[in-house]
Every structure is written in C-alpha cells, then in structure tokens.
C-alpha cells in the first residue's frame, strides 16, 4: 500500500475555505516539516479543538450535576422550595 493510500484510508475528504493569513501560516508549518501537508495540520487543529470542547463540556456538566445535587439536598432540608 502506498503512503498516500494508507494516509487516506478510513478518512473523509472535505473542502475548507479559510482566510489567506491562516493558509499562509499552515504553509509555513508545512515548509518547516512540522506537518506533512495542510490536511495533516488542519486535522491536528480540529482534533485539539474538539478535545478542548469535550473537556469543557464535561467540566460544565460536572458543575451542573454538583449544583443539582446541592439544590436537591437544600430542598430536602427545607431551605429551598422544590
């Protein structure tokens, strides 16, 4: 299997439109061999952003759960109306 076939296997091709300044930055990283190509750079950026969003969402849900249980406790003690 050729390298590019292995790289594409199991992936979905999309089109991305972006401001030229971001493309210039991507190209600079590619030319410095930080990424093999634009696709790899964009995939890494999306992966990192999604991980951060998921982590933020988990944190928010944990806080909501803590507040829910605290409110439920206070309602049971007669401090809050249910």
What does the model show?
- With 82 residues, the chain is mainly alpha-helical.
- The protein has one domain (3-76).
- The chain is 70% helix and 0% strand.
- It is built from 3 helices and no strands.
- It is elongated, with a radius of gyration of 23 Å.
- The mean pLDDT is 81.
Describe the structure using short key phrases:
single chain; 82 residues; mainly alpha; Ribbon_hlx_hlx; Ribbon-helix-helix domain-containing protein; Arc_rbn_hlx_hlx
Secondary structure layout plus pairing:
Layout: H1 3-8, H2 20-31, H3 38-76
Order of helices and strands: HHH
Major sheet attributes? none
Query: Uncertain regions: pLDDT < 50 for 5+ in a row?
Result: none
Number of domains: 1
Helix content: 55-70%
SS class = mainly alpha
Q: What spatial form do the alpha-carbon principal axes imply?
A: elongated
Give the overall pLDDT as a whole number.
81
User: Number of helical segments?
Assistant: 3
The percent range for strand residues is under 5%
Radius of gyration: 23 Å
Oligomer: single chain
| Annotation, overall tally of beta strands | 0
Span between N and C termini?
64 Å
Summary, kept brief:
The protein has three helices and no strands.
């Amino acid at each position: 299997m050729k390298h590019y076939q292995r790289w594409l296997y199991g992936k979905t091709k999309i089109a991305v439109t972006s401001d030229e300044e971001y493309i210039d930055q991507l190209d600079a990283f590619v030319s410095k061999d930080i990424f093999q190509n634009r696709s790899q750079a964009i995939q890494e950026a999306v992966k990192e952003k999604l991980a951060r969003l998921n982590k933020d969402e988990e944190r928010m849900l944990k806080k909501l759960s803590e507040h829910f249980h605290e409110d439920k406790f206070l309602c049971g003690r007669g401090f809050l109306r249910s």
